UniProtKB/TrEMBL annotation:
<dbReference type="InterPro" id="IPR013249">
    <property type="entry name" value="RNA_pol_sigma70_r4_t2"/>
</dbReference>
<dbReference type="Pfam" id="PF04542">
    <property type="entry name" value="Sigma70_r2"/>
</dbReference>
<keyword id="KW-0731">Sigma factor</keyword>
<dbReference type="GO" id="GO:0006352">
    <property type="term" value="P:DNA-templated transcription initiation"/>
</dbReference>
<feature type="domain" description="RNA polymerase sigma-70 region 2">
    <location>
        <begin position="21"/>
        <end position="87"/>
    </location>
</feature>
<dbReference type="GO" id="GO:0016987">
    <property type="term" value="F:sigma factor activity"/>
</dbReference>
<dbReference type="InterPro" id="IPR014284">
    <property type="entry name" value="RNA_pol_sigma-70_dom"/>
</dbReference>
<protein>
    <submittedName>
        <fullName>RNA polymerase sigma factor SigY</fullName>
    </submittedName>
</protein>
<feature type="domain" description="RNA polymerase sigma factor 70 region 4 type 2">
    <location>
        <begin position="114"/>
        <end position="160"/>
    </location>
</feature>
<dbReference type="InterPro" id="IPR039425">
    <property type="entry name" value="RNA_pol_sigma-70-like"/>
</dbReference>
<dbReference type="InterPro" id="IPR007627">
    <property type="entry name" value="RNA_pol_sigma70_r2"/>
</dbReference>
<comment type="similarity">
    <text>Belongs to the sigma-70 factor family. ECF subfamily.</text>
</comment>
<dbReference type="GO" id="GO:0003677">
    <property type="term" value="F:DNA binding"/>
</dbReference>
<dbReference type="InterPro" id="IPR036388">
    <property type="entry name" value="WH-like_DNA-bd_sf"/>
</dbReference>
<dbReference type="InterPro" id="IPR013324">
    <property type="entry name" value="RNA_pol_sigma_r3/r4-like"/>
</dbReference>
<dbReference type="Pfam" id="PF08281">
    <property type="entry name" value="Sigma70_r4_2"/>
</dbReference>
<dbReference type="InterPro" id="IPR013325">
    <property type="entry name" value="RNA_pol_sigma_r2"/>
</dbReference>
Length: 176
């Protein structure tokens, strides 16, 4: 309920409410973008552009989903646009592991975590984004489909193929 109140105030021009929304959702957005790009410096640029776009378009936000979902959607689009413009995939940066101070770091060993991130970085952003949204952020298939602008069947297919490819690569590397 508090988030809806902040959103309404932000839509009315309350900068403090907008700032609170950004501060509360920044860790989720930053973690997602770091996992997508594998590069903390590039991630910071994407996060800043995402927040700028969100601030400029706050009046268009329809709170049928969480504010963090909206930010992740914008961030995904900013990253997608960057990939289209640059026609390149940014290699994973080892510094990313140091920045990923979250629960998954405690659950998954550093080696497995790093291996999975390395494998993910070699996949298309479509597969990578579905995997990260589902397994790191526990979004439902419907929410992922909305964020990425694709059918639920496509989300399921991408996730299935991504997991299959990760398992094959981990087996090839002798990790599992």
């Amino acid at each position: 309920m508090e988030e809806l109140n902040l959103i309404e105030k932000a839509k009315q021009g309350n900068k403090g409410a907008l700032n609170t929304l950004f501060v509360e959702n920044y860790p989720i957005l930053k973690g997602y973008i770091i996992k997508m790009t594998g590069n903390p410096d590039l991630s910071q640029d994407i996060v800043q552009e995402t927040l700028l776009k969100a601030a400029m378009n706050i009046k268009k936000f329809n709170p049928k989903a969480k504010f963090s979902t909206w930010l992740i959607t914008i961030g995904t689009n900013v990253y997608r646009d960057m990939l289209r413009k640059n026609k390149q995939v940014i290699p994973i940066d080892d510094a990313m592991i140091a920045e990923g101070n979250s629960v998954e770091d405690e659950v998954i060993s550093k080696i497995e975590y790093k291996e999975i991130l390395n494998i993910l970085q070699k996949m298309s952003y479509e597969k990578r984004s579905v995997f990260i949204l589902k397994h790191y952020y526990s979004y439902k298939y419907e929410e992922i489909a909305e964020i990425l602008g694709c059918p639920i069947g496509t989300v399921r297919s991408r996730l299935h193929n991504c997991i299959r490819d990760i398992i094959r690569e981990l087996e090839r590397r002798g990790i599992i």
